[in-house]
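Case study B.
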Amino acid sequence: MKPELVITGAGVVSAIGVGKAANLDSLQHARSGVAPVRYLATDLKDFPVGEVKLSNEELGALCGAPAEWPRTTLLSICALQEALKEAGLADGCGMRLIGGTTVGGMDLTEKIFPQYSPNHGCGATTDLAALFIGGFEDATTLSTACSSAANAFMFGANLLRTGQYERVVVGGSESLSNYHLNGFNSLMILDREPCRPFDATRAGLNLGEGAAYLVLETLESALKRGAKPLARLSGFGNACDAFHQTASSENGEGAYLAMQKALKMAGLQPSQIDYINAHGTGTPNNDASESTALKRIFDGKVPPVSSTKAFTGHTTSASGSIEAVFCLLALQHGFIPPQLNYSTPDPACVMPCVSALQKPLKHILSNAFGFGGNDSSIILSVYE
Amino acid sequence: MLDMENLINELKLKVIDALNLDGMTPEDIDDNAPLFGDEGLGLDSIDVLELIVLLEKNYGIRLASPAQGKEVFQSVAVMAAYVEKNRTK
Amino acid sequence: MKQVSIPSGASLTELYRKWVGDYPKFFKMDTLSKLGFLLTEMLVHDEPDRFTFREDRAVLVFSREGCVANDRHYAESMKDFPSPALFVYTLPNIVSGEIAIRNKWGGESSAYVLESYDEARIWEMVRQAFQDKCTQSALVAWIDCPSDNEFITNAWLVNKTDML
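Model:
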């Protein structure tokens, strides 16, 4: 891909910790953050969730923003601060911020003004985070459900490839809200137990929350300012499953096309992929469909695969970037995050990796599939 | 029997309303016609979920899963028999 | 480059009967999706082989209000029984999905929420979409739908050659 695109900073907040070090520790020690709901005021207490283990007051204190702000914004700010610090940038520095979200400020409006909840524009929380950090030239919000943050990557990459920016910040943020917890429950795809991606007994997903942002720039820009490239964004692809509003097709066509595009852009053979961070929500439908797509693309020889949603829950619009950060950590530290909660193989599914394998990794594929058949894949590669 | 006939008619009206079956009347729905699949009304998985809500909202019956839903919603007649047996309101 | 629009407050059922007539799932869609669906129909109804699966057409939907009209209906339903059929449409990109499902388009699809109707920004993003070498044409729509009866729409079928 020309020009070469590199990641120079990353920040994350999730159910398994605040900051990359905490998340890394949890991943390496198989410590899940999925637990009974604690912070969200809801009647749906039966469903375990991947909550960030801090109240809004604590988040506010951590990042210096008012605790009364939407949780989505507070999570964004925490992740942005970590990413920018690592990239050696004082603030927005004239970059474009591209964030994905579905919930936006709903967590707040549904509490205070339930009748106005749908009026709280979903771009507002990204804009507020950009304003707080300061220095961004512009902010854009993408809202394509669970592929939002991955699509933010692509949008940012395209801005770089067309020479409109040298440096962008991409990612997503999502907080739990009654609105979408109730919604997922009405679709009957939530599990009353911690989710079990790819397992024959899997019964649904656990909702999660969190935020992750990454500084993405051209290699030239990074080298020019003496920033250390952490990894390369070597390929990406988006395709539409064109099957159903919320379910995936049996042969995983959209997923297959998205992965194929990503591999082609990266100039990689499927056999060169060392690890797949699957979308793997734990629903009977997604895991079967994604497995079919994986088996098709990898011609039956699927590399080590796991879904980290058993650690964090399904963070929906933030999942593409939270999981990209996990892939970055995997590349940097040479390990494969294990599949938690897996015990019964399903012949229709891939067999994920259950122990945290230590091995040097060169290329990682990460999937993020959204409602509307919006399927995205990105490939992160080691920078050498 | 009249009760069952009334219930079937009532269900047809509710199904038409809940599933936005535009322009349909109860006369258009055969009591025993399959609701799902191409031979039937062509309802899909989201429709199953809406019918599950319909059952709880109107008759106090809570189905456990979409799979159970597909069993109960085979036709309006099957649905009516199930409602008659299990309704709590 | 073909362009169409639907006037605010138009009867979508009438337009459906005029342009389509054989897709009952239309009636389950929210207004945003119905508009996107109909605008697309108006643009491609006479395209040869229109229902043959293709990967080379992107779908980009832009709006200011997203799916807020439907979001309100869902919020209302949450008061007693949250409706799954309404929840499905509480995302601003399901409209792209509905267009893709109907027309069998497996290319890139996206949804953007902008502060206002910004032609420069819209065409900048369309240009981005053509960065994907696979993409030869794009369905681009601006659909602003603050309520079920008020909407502003504009849609284009853009070929790669139009962007030069």
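Chain A has a mean pLDDT of 94. The remaining cases will be described in the next quarterly update.
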